[in-house]
Input
Amino acid sequence: MGFQSKGCTLRGTGDKMTEIAVLVKRVPDTNAQILVSGDRVDLSAVKWVMSPYDEFALEAAMLHKEAKGGNVTAITLGNADCDKVLKDAKAVGVDRIIRVWDDSWSELDSNQAQSALANVIRDLGINIVYCGKSAADTGAGSTGPGVAERLGWASASNIIGLEFEDTGVEAMVPAATGNARTGVSLPAVISCDKGFCKPRKPNVKGIMMAKRAQVEVMSSDIPSSSVNIISHSPPPKKAPGQTFEGASEVPRVVAALRNDANVI
Amino acid sequence: MSETIVIAETRDGELHPVTAELVSAANNLGDSTTIVVPSTNDAAANSASSIAGVSKVIACVGDCFAAYDAASWAEAIDSCAPSGVIVCAASQNGKDLASRLAARRSISVVQDVVGIDGGTLTQPIYSGKAMQNLSLNGDAAISVRANTFAAAGDGGSAEVSVMNQSADVATAVREMIAKASERLDVAEADIIISGGRGMQDPANFANLERLADTLGAAVGASRAAVDTWEEIPHSMQVGQTGKTVNPSLYIAVGISGAIQHLAGMRTSKYIVAINKDPEAPIFKHADYGIVSTWEDALPVLEAELKALLG
Amino acid sequence: MAYEGLDFYDIESQLSEEEVMVRDMVRDWVDEEVIPNIEEACRDGRFPEEWGKALGEMGVLGMTIDEKYGCAGMSYVAYGLVCQELERGDSGLRSFASVQGSLAMFPISAFGSEEQKMHYLPQMASGEWIGCFGLTEPDYGSNPGDMITRAVEDGDEYVLNGAKMWITNGTVADVAIVWAKLDGVIRGFIVEKDDVGFSAPEMTGKHSLKASVTSELVFQDCRIPKDRILPNVKGLKGPFSCLNNARYGISWGAIGSAQACFHSAKEYALSRIQFEHPIASYQLVQNKLAWMLREITKGQLLALHLGRKKDDGSWFPEQISLAKMNNVDMALEIARMARDIHGANGILDEYPIMRHMANLESVKTYEGTHDIHNLIIGRWITGIQAFTRTV
Output
């Protein structure tokens, strides 16, 4: 598929079928305790789930199909342990489930992961990709915009509202001065925050469909890694609780929340 | 000489102060720092030139910078910026842009950096439950969290060169809508301010709501408050029979800290307690306890937060 | 802390992917919809109608029945896991699903005509129609064989007379499977809520299963068309085969109640400070928690193995009696022990303990009392039945 013009006019996809993809990732449950053993996190005992924001992306993809037709393909990147998140996506009704992997790969850096995903998305003839605004493991939020750039597509990130149009979507994108009602022409990558839709739940019939569904495995050329993970370490220990006397101490607490705790 | 390129953070066309922190981060990484200032004009670039420790300022000027559009920003900035390690702010748009720029140059991106020590970068993973230490093998784009590095001082006088760009925007902002001050649900919020029976009257929860608006927080309540006052709905209740919450910051006001309440909020990352009774059990669980009546403490808190967050 | 079921022996490794998916689907729904609302439902003495609809939407009603009838055709282990998660919410909720699936839909699927199956099962699977099961009578509980309710033929109709008691879902049911004697032989009949001469007044004043509807069924010259008889079963075998399925589900359900109590007791013991330390640090409390874990783990292994036998058809009814009896018994003991650990707080509805405890008193008695199951096993051991004697 060729590179689309990036003019202000929203271009449609003509009479082409909308091919929708949703990127889903297997991550430790956000309630899981993360232990560091030696110099690596020990994930052997954690419960694995679909990354929470991806559930909203999945719902957006399904809503897009219901509004405008087309097919939804769920794509994940990882080894066979990641089949479960694809089955979870299948259980709520996606048409096709694809895992991107090669047994010669181990942990991929962002450059490698995005290249692999972008290559597969290009090969599949997808014209809109939904993903979570960030994954619960890295929290980085790089994949959506990174994949879009590699494909030469438009993107809107962290969206909190979505309308489907014949030639694109209208996304609500939070900005410093308010929320921007933004037109996005296809092809595009949309990364989703939570809250604008309620992810559908599977039912037993969907689960039986998922049981019978085959995971397709696809691979791709990737560049070499340019990031070395040296070690993992536990987070810095919190200081013991402090008690302050009187309202005049409030500024000190606010400063601590800002500078030490980094929560405001 | 390794080159580091800071992408200035701007807000409404003006240089955001976090840019000076990015310069400090960049100076930790390389020995020559260039700032690229994306804007519709060169005013912000001129103010960037006074940041100390900067070799060069590039005003990347184009109409596409009128509103954030990832594709055109990345295209325009990419053609202005020399090669090297790119440093953005770990803001919503900064992270988005870092990803785009890295992808455009086929290099890796490392987000939310909270430490740079020699060649080792540190970033939180699993929502801060662990830290990842890594080194770069070539160029990369990184985003750096605010408050990680002290801001570089003034007194610089770097040369400003203007480069005009004309990238086509890929997305079109049709309308800006003011953010509704809609009340967040406690189960969803990252910051929660809860009141207990110590608030004395349900009307006093208005004080908590004003604070919540400033912080983008949700307002919660203890069971005692919900049971005592009809005006405080069950949906606000945090605790054993209410909602179990896990925010970054939980501010408990006039809540003694009964075991049933603690069951719903004790896994909060940081807990602030305001209570006039120094013996209240909530203080045993608070990271920051303030022994004070809410009437005295809340106005100071509100003023401080307003000053900080605007 | 979010709920994660106790799984000391890694039972999960023995489950198929779809069994885990079904369990997690129900687990999430119970966490989101049931647990936040159950105390209010109990206080109001009401089964929330929307829960029945939700169970239908999830597809767990009659989920072991063939897909041809709008059901899921899933394993008995999956059904057991659903019962476990529902009863972790509340025994009344699990009772609703047991009655709908095992006691109302199952006899239609096993003993009904093809027309009956096509007519009733899809509507019941979706939760559109609610079913109930009428076997027990005011004077005949453990001894249903001597039931009084009678049916007589009258032209194109059967005429039913008699009364049933302790009927879960009775008042809200659209369809009742009623067991009555026709010419001295126990037969199953499908009675619909608008049939002339049929009424189902609710029984009130329960201190147990408060979020479940319990009713009488009254038949006063109740006339039903002849095609409402279940053609393919005669005698006590009919109702007993239904009860086998329901009792099997209870053996899993009780684990759910026990898990809820254990989870609450563990959390409480870790956070309650007395004599300057969490009470979880005291040996007497640890002893109780260890006992709970031990009994839950044994109960899980019992239920799982029985489920696999249900699925491959190699089971016999006494095995179900053992699992129902044991698991309800251990759950009730765990509820009482958990109340102890919670101290005075254990009596509050802030915690699920007293509710589960009171529910389990019913569960211990219904679907074959604890003692009757002992007699069933006693008969299996000795070959001597001890139910009846000539005095």
Q: What stands out?
A: The two ends of chain C are 59 Å apart (CA to CA).
